[in-house]
Amino acid sequence: MKSCIRARWVVGVAFLTMVVGLVAADKDPIRTKLTGLEETTATINTTASGEFKATISEDGTSIKYEETWQDLSSTVTQSHIHFGRPALTGQIVLYLCSNLTPPTGVPTPQACPLASPATITGTLTEADVIASPVVGGQGIDAGAAGFAEMVKAIKTGSAYVNVHTINHPSGEIRGRLGHPRPGQHNSEDHGGHNH
Length: 195
Hints:
Layout: H1 2-27, E1 30-34, E2 49-56, E3 63-70, E4 76-83, E5 91-98, E6 118-124, H2 143-155, E7 159-165, E8 173-177
Antiparallel strand pairs: 1-2, 2-3, 3-6, 4-5, 4-7, 7-8
């Protein structure tokens, strides 16, 4: 009888430790360095750099972020989170800032600072998701479902953030988000460069 109780106690403690570890892992901020060497379709040789830090809420319904950049070649036009893996260009799903005409159907993003260095902060929710149809698009749903899809993409290394400038309208600096699956590397694993 005592050995059965002890075994249940050990299993219970092990389970609790596992759950606490998973919850603690989700509180770790997502971080990436932004560099021109990450840009697609053309790699950009630039002195510009930046950093993006984000924390996903425990319930997965919001992302608080801070993005910084410096030494850009020209004025920032916009910055966003894209759905796309390393070395691939993906659709814009979440705006961080814009000095251009934003898309309709989502809240107007904050204006990007015109000076460099600069820092922006904010919170993203399901209202900020730009959906993409399955046919002809990448299949990101609108609203809460699309936000959950992007949280998953961020956590698995299938999303990136970039900063667009007048001189580089497709993006001057970029960084991969999230914790990649086994066999993949975070940008911080190799001095900010994905392989």
